[in-house]
Amino acid sequence: MKRNTKQRSTILENLKARCDHPTAEMVYDSVREEIPNISLGTVYRNLRDLSDTGDILAFEENDTWHFDGTSEPHMHFCCRSCGSIDDLMLDGNNLLLRDGFEVKNIIVEGICRDCQEKGIK
User: Fold this and answer.
1) Residue 42: its pLDDT value, please?
2) Which helix (H) or strand (E) holds 31?
3) CA-CA-CA-CA dihedral for 18, 45, 108, 20, to nearest 10
4) DSSP-assigned beta bridge partners for residue 96
5) Residue 2: pLDDT band by 50, 70, 90 thresholds?
6) What separation in angstroms does the CA of 10 have from each of 39, 52, 66, 76?
7) Buried b (16+ CB within 10 A) or exposed e, 57-82
8) Which of 21, 59, 77, 116 is least buried, going by the fewest C-beta atoms within 10 A?
9) How many CB atoms sit inside 10 A of residue 56's CB?
10) DSSP assignment, residue 93?
11) How much is the pLDDT for 59?
């Protein structure tokens, strides 16, 4: 088990306070406000460890890794036009899977409302 360092707890708190599904670089920029001498490597290492332990979700979309402080299994809507990512929550537990599967993340792609209003299809 990894020890709970100030860097690790700050990164986790940062992710849990956000809803923008940031990249590692975005987390790094934000965490540097509280820990100015933190390295990008430390952020990457802690994000990987937090993901491995199930404390956060990590997923790749458009060739970029994104991180989510909501560790409960849920869906993400990713806009194919602008790249925005939003949470989609299930209304009840209506997802059925074969035995042996454990859902961590489901990605749904489409066009967001803002892009639709701009006429993008």
Assistant:
1) 96
2) helix 24-31
3) 20
4) none
5) low
6) 13, 17, 17, 24
7) bbbeeeeebbbbbbbeebebbbbeee
8) 116
9) 21
10) S
11) 92
